Every structure is written in structure tokens, then in C-alpha cells.
Amino acid sequence: MLWLEGIGCRRHGVTVLDGVTLGVGSGEIVVIEGSPASGKSTLLEVAATARVPERGAVWFAGRNTASLQRASLPFVRRNIGYYTAEALLIDDDSALANVMAALAVRGESLQAAESGALDALALVRAQELASRQVASLSSGQKRLVALARALAGPPPLVVADEPAAFVDDEARAVVVSALARVRDLGAAVLAATADTALADVLVAAGGRRIHLEQGRVAGAPAVELVPALHPPQDERETGPSRLLAGERDDGDRSVPAPAAKGPR
Amino acid sequence: MNAAWIARNVRRQVSAHPRMVAATGAAFCFLALVAGGARLGTRAVERWGAFAGQNIHVIVYLAEDVDAQGALGLRDILRRSPAVARVALVEPAQALARLRASAQGFSSDGNALDGLEPAYFPRSLEVSLAPAADLTSRARELATRLREVPGVAEVDAMTSGLARLAVWVRLGRTVGLAILIALGFVALLALVAVFLRGHDAMARRAAVLDQLGETPAVIRLPAGLWSATAALVGGGLGALILASAWRPLLDRLEQSLGIASTLPLAPLAPAEIAAGLAIIALAGLAMGYFATPLPRAADHA
């Protein structure tokens, strides 16, 4: 579903990512583990198409996003559930409306969006927050609502930055279970955390761990880490999605949107 | 995002920021009042100009040897001139009566003019010119010609009065224009202040929708729609206020100034109101649309 190839990024003149290559297939959880400032958040920004890398390519569902016009990026982005610990929400809307927005953007009807949003809130056990105004929620509750929004659908790809930061053990278990659930529904999940315990739990739930150190994948080269996902040279024109588990090989190279109506 | 969701977003933004919406409507109402008032004000000035045109511009004092018959003959000749709108013959007795009437307004001594007799006053012709922009020069030109007519003793072109009137009209227009520009600027400042106040909330909403993959046009559309609606309602209210209050206000002003123009005062035509409201709605749409800040794309450096 997602293939990051040789990603390089700089921030204020400092190299944050240096040739990171990794892939995430549908129905798979990949955990990026690393110390703070190791480049995890930047890598996830790139994966969520919120940041354009200086070097490298981002393949999403068989399409190199660098080849797309900037105006086309929203149509890619709406297929990605992106969660950040910052929990960017619309304060003067209800929790339900915030989660519904993710589905409405994908072209769902109001009824379908409401139903899907309630399911997503239930997935993170936050259904009782549905009618609450976001401004009235605690920071932990806001994070749950933001996570529910990222998981609503679910989208083909979930990108979660510190999904269990600042939450108690009970909420952490809920987060892990929710990520595993959307993985089981076929979504590709890319999570990043500095919390080794959380990474262990996610790996125990069937996730694959990648360690990031100073902007590089630690240990063996990325190609060796995920050999089954790396597209051979002759496949790169059409992208790696043909090699990903669970992807159909029907020749359709447009951005698939199982949970979305796609570009209108 | 479909139309139902956009409509829902418009409603939510209106209910979340009622003061911002009301302030937008009020600012556009004010703009409508300023623009409509300027339009109607221009017509009022034209009307007052026409009133000035109805007044006397040239007084022709006839020689003592011109009798009533001769005076009437001269009046008829003058009436045939295309530049002349009206000519009235004022007999000596009439002139004395006028003098006494006007003196009563300035002096408490009612006997001050008792010694005057009609014979002291010459016959005269009061000439009103047809309304024109260059009344002063036309009056001066007519006076020059009349001075050469036999039987005419003196001609007062009253150009100093007309020149003063022209100066006052020009000054009034300049001051009026300056006031209108200032008021329009105040309305625009009010609008900018309204949108600056709501900037953070709008920016956050836009950032969220951008992260979710909404296109810039659809991110901006709801704010444009509620802003256009508020502008339309505000503009409509302004038009309603002008339609109901302008005429009585102008009547009172003209009454207090002693202006009784025969030129009818045209109100704002339905087509003018419709065009004005369309412009206001478009301005509101553009204001809300472009005031919605889009998140900057993450830089590469």
C-alpha cells in the first residue's frame, strides 16, 4: 500500500531523514521505533503526504505521489487516516462531527458518515463523547477522538504518530486493539513511537518493528528489512502495489479507495 | 464532500460564530447604506441644482421712460430666448411691497420704510435662465447683451451670487465624497476586523480539513457562502432602510433649507437595488472565501 524509497528531508538546514526506505502492506502494522528527534514524525508526515521530501519517492497504492500535481494531493490524503499527538480537531464542533468530517471528505452521505463515525468512536471506546463539543474535552479525550477520526472507515492507510502518548494503560490497550482491528479490516498501519513498551505490544499484536536512528533505518538496509515489499527496478514505473499482500493485480493503477468515493 | 455536508458546515459555522456572522451582515448593511446614500445623494444634488436653476439670475431695471406696455413688450422678447426659462415683470408697487416684507424680517422698526413711495422704484424684469452647468457665464453674457437694449437702465447679472453657489456646491460635493470614502473605509476596516477576530478558528478548521484531504476550494466554500448570505441580508436591510427613511429625511432637510424643487426625486430603481445586492453578495462570497486561510504546505528545508 505504501512504499517510501530513499526518503531524505532537512529541517532548518539539519538532515532529519537520510535515505529511509520502507514499505507497509495492506493488513499489516509497521511500528517505527526510535528516540525523540530520530525523524519519526517527519517520516510519518512524508508518509501522510503532509510533507514533500527533498529526496526519494512516496508510492501510495502504486502511484508515485511526487508525480502528482499539488492539487491532486488532497485526493491521496483523503485515503490516509493521519493521527498526530497534537490531535488537530475543530474545537467548535462536536466529537461526532469531527470524526464524520473524515468520511464526508471521502464523499460519504451524511447518514453513512454518521454511522461510520459512531463505529469509529466505539472502536476507541469514546462513543459517549460523540455529542460533546471538542472544546470541552480533556486532552486525552481529544486524542481518542482524533484517533477515531484517523481510523474511521477505515481508510486504506492509517498513519499514527505516538498513538498512545499521554494515555493511561487502559486507554493504551484500547489504542492497540483499535489499530489491530483496522489492520484486520485490511488497512495498512504505520505507527511511530518512542515508547518501547508500546512498540513491543504492537509487535506482539502482529506488527513489524523498524528502528529509526538519526534519520536512518538502523541495522540492515531497508531493502533487506522488507525484501518482499521492495519493487524490482522494472516494476517501479507501475509501483509496488502489485507486490503487496492483499492487493489485486488487475492493472488498475489509480489510487484505490476502499473506504472512499475517490476524487469527484 | 457533498452539497449536504457543505450546507451542514455552513450552518455549523453560523451557529458557532453568530457574532461574526452578525458583524459581517452589519458591515455590509453599512456599506449598502453608504453606497445607496451616495447614489441618492447625487440625485438630491442634481435636484437642488435644478432648484437653483429656477431662481432669478438676471434683473433688468428699466428706464423711467419705459411704460407698462413697453415693459411687457421687452418681457415677450426675452421669453423667446432659448436660454431663458422664465421672465417676470415687477411693477414698482410690487417691488416696494417686497422690500417692506423682507425688511420686517430684519428690523423691529416697522415704520422705517414709511417714507418710500412706489415711484422711487423702477420697473424691472426678473429673468430665470434654463438650468445649465455654466449658469454664471450665461447670465453674464445675457446681461452684456441686455445693457445694449434701448430702455434698459441697468442690468444685475447676480454672478457673484451664482459663483458663490457654484463654489458651495463644489465644496459640498468634495466634502460629501470625502465623507463617503471615509465611511466606506470604516466599513471595510470593520469587515477586516471581523475576519481577523475569527481568523484562528477559521485557520484551524481549514488545517483540519486540509489534513483530511479536502480540496482548497471546498475548504473555503462554506465561509464564502455564509459570508455571502450575511452580506445579502445586510445589504437588503440597508436597501430597506434607504427606501423607507431617505425620502422623509430629504423632505425634512429641503423643508428646513427652503428648497422646493420641481424636479421629481427618483428613488432607487428595482434594477439598481438588484444590481447592488448582487455586487454585495459577490463581495461577501469573495470576502469569506479568501479570508479562509489555507495551511501552508510543509516546506522542504
Please, could you describe this protein's structure?
The complex is a heterodimer of chains A (264) and B (301). Chain A has one domain (2-243): P-loop containing nucleotide triphosphate hydrolases (Rossmann fold, 3-Layer(aba) Sandwich), CATH 3.40.50. Helix content of chain A is 30%, strand content 22%. Chain A is built from 8 helices and 10 strands. In chain A, the strands form 2 sheets. A 6-stranded mixed β-sheet of chain A has the order 6-7-8-3-9-10, sandwiched between helices. In chain A, α6 (169-184) links the parallel β7 and β8 (188-193). Chain B folds into 2 domains: 3-51 and 165-291, no CATH class; 57-157, 2-Layer Sandwich (Alpha-Beta Plaits), CATH 3.30.70.3040. Helices cover 69% and strands 8% of the residues of chain B. Chain B contains 9 helices and 4 strands. Chain B has helices at 3-16, 18-54, 68-79, 92-106, 135-147, 159-197, 199-212, 216-257, 270-291, and strands spanning 58-62, 84-90, 124-129, 152-156. In chain B, α5 runs antiparallel to α6 and α8 (216-257) packs across α9. The two termini of chain B are 33 Å apart. Chain A binds chain B through residues 9-13, 45, 48, 50-54, 70-71, 74-80, 82, 88-93, 97-98, 101-102, 104-107, 109-110, 113, 149, and chain B through 1-2, 4-5, 8, 12, 16-17, 201, 204-205, 207-216, 297-298, 300-301.
Summarize the structure.
The complex is a heterodimer of chains A (264) and B (301). Chain A is α/β, with parallel strands linked by helices and 264 residues long. Chain A is built from 8 helices and 10 strands.
